[in-house]
Write a structure and sequence with these properties.
The chain is mainly α. The chain contains 16 helices and ten strands.
């Protein structure tokens, strides 16, 4: 009778059970996802710190971290000797005539090497600056064991490295504060000083998580994991000084063609260090690269990610004048970085100077004067605010 009087009871019980079952499924699904997420994160951390992986970037950091530069010199010497054996056999006589470049009586090998280096610099840098002085600087770097001589393997290593734009720039800027110091080289491998922080922002996520995070939210996350504002200001001053160093220096103008936060780092004192200079190229070299490029629109006239020229529609060829100077690209990178958390008494002026900086164009009248004025205004504004703090 109860079943006949209350037919709805048969429906309500299965329905509530189904709701509870759905809730349990969602609960376990969430827990499973969380376990997979945490497990993936732990595996990523373990993988990225596993020292036996033979990856160039990690090997470089491991070598510097362990402080085994003395052992590295032995490795370099051994590899150089092996290279000489491979190239010239085991008979020492052929090598005896050319292994040392500092003996003009043994031939003109040293002069030939200098001519080759000079020709390379002339092609990359043009006639700007004292190229002979730069060649002598390269010869001093080529003397890896500092015995006052440049052996053939040392010269070959130096020549291999000179094909890399970033190495040439590092040699030119070795006396500058924001260029990592060269510790040594062998073949096309070179070692630099250890830099504590290898990105402008303080968080790195696994690539699979990067794909799932919206770009707008990712930019907000980047701002959460940054140093205090005075320290950010000091890092920013370092970037402005670096831009100043490569703008019409003694060997010409260099262009920053990838101003990514991942290419900038800083040490424990919050001094800026350039982590990746592969896309910083001599202006004259970039013009040669892009002048004959075919184009349908301005989007076809981009080198790297940030060096942009215009498309000449009448010739369907890219022009050679880069639109934005390095300073404008640096300010674009620093805008959100500096404005977030900026002291209220300079926030308005800082924002004004940054937007004036971003608006800079290479083709503008009196561009160099505006460039110097904005650069000095930004450095002065930031420095006055932090000069009395412990972070300066």
């Amino acid at each position: 009778m109860a079943r006949r009087l209350f037919p709805g009871a048969w429906l309500r019980k299965p329905h509530s059970a189904q709701v509870r079952l759905s809730y349990v499924r969602i609960k376990y699904l969430f827990i499973s996802w969380l376990v997979v997420f945490v497990g993936s994160w732990v595996m990523y951390v373990q993988y990225s710190t596993y020292t036996e992986l033979c990856r160039g970037h990690d090997c470089r950091k491991i070598i510097i971290y362990l402080g085994i530069w003395g052992n590295l010199q032995s490795v370099i010497k051994c590899q150089m000797e092996e290279a000489a054996q491979l190239d010239f056999g085991t008979d020492p006589e052929p090598r005896k005539e050319i292994v040392l470049f500092d003996k003009p009586t043994r031939g003109t090998t040293v002069e030939k090497f200098k001519e080759m280096v000079y020709g390379l610099f002339k092609a990359k840098l043009g006639e700007q600056g004292n190229l002979s002085e730069l060649v002598n600087l390269i010869l001093s770097f080529a003397d890896g064991n500092k015995d006052g001589r440049v052996s053939l393997p040392e010269a070959k290593s130096a020549w291999a490295l000179l094909q890399l734009e970033e190495f040439l720039l590092m040699v030119i800027l070795q006396d500058k504060e924001h260029t990592p110091k060269l510790m040594g080289f062998c073949g096309d491998l070179y070692v630099t000083e250890r830099v504590e922080y290898t990105s402008l922002y303080g968080i790195s996520l696994p690539w699979i998580i990067e794909l799932l995070i919206p770009s707008g939210f990712r930019r907000s996350m980047d701002q959460w994991f940054t140093p205090s504002w005075p320290r950010k200001a000091k890092i920013a001053i370092g970037l402005l000084e670096f831009v100043e160093d490569i703008f019409h220096g003694p060997y010409g103008n260099f262009l920053m063609c990838d101003t990514s936060a991942k290419n900038l780092g800083y040490n424990e004192k919050y001094d800026l260090k350039m982590m990746d200079m592969r896309k910083i190229v001599p202006e004259i070299n970039l013009k040669e690269i892009i002048k004959d490029r075919q184009c349908d629109s301005d989007l076809d006239c981009i080198y790297g990610t940030d060096c942009r020229t215009l498309c000449d529609q009448s010739k369907m060829r890219c022009t050679t004048e880069v639109i934005q100077p390095n300073l404008a690209k640096a300010c674009q990178l620093l805008k959100d970085y500096l404005l977030r958390g900026a002291p209220s008494d300079i926030h308005e002026e800082l924002e004004k100077q940054l937007y004036l900086c971003i608006a800079l164009k290479v083709t503008a009248n009196q561009m160099e004067m505006e460039h110097s004025l904005i650069l000095n205004n930004l450095k002065t504004l930031l420095w006055k605010k932090i000069s009395h703090t412990n972070d300066s």
